[in-house]
Amino acid sequence: MAQTALAQTALAQAAPAQKPATYDRSSVEAVVQLYFDGLYEGDADKIGAAFDVSADLRWVENGKLEILPVPQWLERVRTRPSAKSQNQPRADFIVTIDKSDDNNAFVKVRCQLPPRYFTDYLSVMKLADGWTIVSKSYRYETR
């Protein structure tokens, strides 16, 4: 504990004073919950409400970066059966929220659409109309 206090004192002396970020964590969590609900229910409108229209999904497939714009992803969501309609178990949760200032947060989440189990990395920004997901990169495993 003494080392932590010492490190904080050293950082405070070395870095210029910054105004502490004062974002409302519950607002970020609400956007992520809307995303989780939309995923589980297969509700593309809910998912779309959580994402900025310019956002995209990024993942690696066979060593190659794949990029899918959110509007194209939502069309896929609309045509596939939902986990809820198949009585699949629901297990989605926020692993961590890392904020850098009043307008930027990075959120790591876990969710599932069996047989695929995902770790998502969401870039979330506070725009004029509130918090929204502006980018998603992810990995998954099949079980």
Protein architecture, described:
Strands 2-1-6-5-4-3 form a six-stranded mixed sheet. It contains four helices and six strands. The protein is of the alpha+beta class. The protein is globular, with a radius of gyration of 18 Å. Helix 3 packs antiparallel against helix 4 (70-79). A hairpin with a 2-residue loop joins strand 5 (116-127) and strand 6 (130-142). It starts with a helix and ends with a strand.
Write the layout of secondary structure elements.
Blueprint (H helix, E strand, L loop, with lengths): L1 H13 L10 H17 L2 H7 L5 E6 L2 E6 H10 L13 E9 L2 E10 L2 E12 L2 E13 L1
Parallel strand pairs: 1-6
Antiparallel strand pairs: 1-2, 3-4, 4-5, 5-6
* Uncertain stretches of 5 or more adjacent residues: 1-21
Order of helices and strands: HHHEEHEEEE
Report the total helices: 4
Q: What shape does the CA trace take?
A: globular
Mean pLDDT: 87
Biggest sheet overview: 6 strands, mixed
Number of strands: 6
Helix content: 25-40%
Largest sheet: spatial strand order? 2-1-6-5-4-3
Q: Structural class from helices and strands?
A: alpha+beta
Short description:
This protein is α+β, with helices and mostly antiparallel strands and about 140 residues long. It is about 35% helix and about 40% strand. Helix 2 runs antiparallel to helix 3 and helix 3 runs antiparallel to helix 4.
List its traits.
six-stranded mixed beta sheet; alpha+beta; about 140 residues; 6 strands
